[in-house]
Amino acid sequence: MQQRLRQLCAVLALAGALPAQAALFSDDEARKAILELRAKVTALEEAQKRLASSQDLQDQLQTLRRSLLEISNQNEALRAEMARLRGANEQLTRDLADTQRRLSDQLQGFDARIKQFEPQKVSLDGQEFKVEPEEQRQYEAAMGLLRRGEFAQAASAYESFLKRFSASGYGAAVRFWLGNAQYGQRAYAPAIATFREFLKLNPQHPRVPEALLALANCQIELKDSKSARKTLDELIKAHPGSEAAQAAKERRASLK
User: Fold this and answer.
1) Tens of pLDDT, residues 68-91
2) Number of Cβ atoms within 10 Å of the Cβ of 136
3) Where does the signal sequence lie (predicted)?
4) Domain check: are 140 and 238 in the same one?
5) What is the pLDDT of residues 225-253, one digit of tens each?
6) What is the DSSP string of 78-114?
7) What is the reported pTM?
């Protein structure tokens, strides 16, 4: 482009010299040369305009490319941020689930610990009542001793129970089994006292026939046949259909 401009300048300089050399050219030739020069100048000016327009377009394209690149970068940054937030949300969801699970486990453990101190409903010998956990534990421990034939330890455990839990719903059962533990030790007089107390406090208890038979057995062991016969007669009369009454008839028949 710069070379063509230099050529144009040279032509224009030549055209300026034409009047001085008019004698060398005819008028038509000079006019024709001038018209050609003007056409070339016009073409060069148009080329310059197109070049300038093309440069503007290139600048606009560059600006557009930069804008698109910025938008692309912003879009990538936005995607990265969305991915980060999505990951953070998933982590929060997992953390929440873990927290809820731990809380549930803690609540279950707390409920279990609370239940250890709450009264429990117990059904025993046809009766329902509530007992404290420690009552239940001590009663079952004493029963375990009795089942293993550790009569002295069982009797001691039952006596301790009655002192500590005097109003317990286990009271009737504890007195009945205390009498049996004493009988197992051959402590017949204490056993008689225990069975009499049981009968006095629990006249409607389902184990009354068994207690009467056990009382008669203690009396027999003490050679008190008269009292034993009286107790057996009472049992047979008051509870004729019981298994204890059938056993009482056999024991009475053996008495002299």
Assistant:
1) 778 888 878 888 888 888 888 888
2) 15
3) 1-22
4) yes
5) 999 999 999 999 999 999 999 999 999 99
6) HHHHHHHHHHHHHHHHHHHHHHHHHHHHHHHHHHHHH
7) 0.58
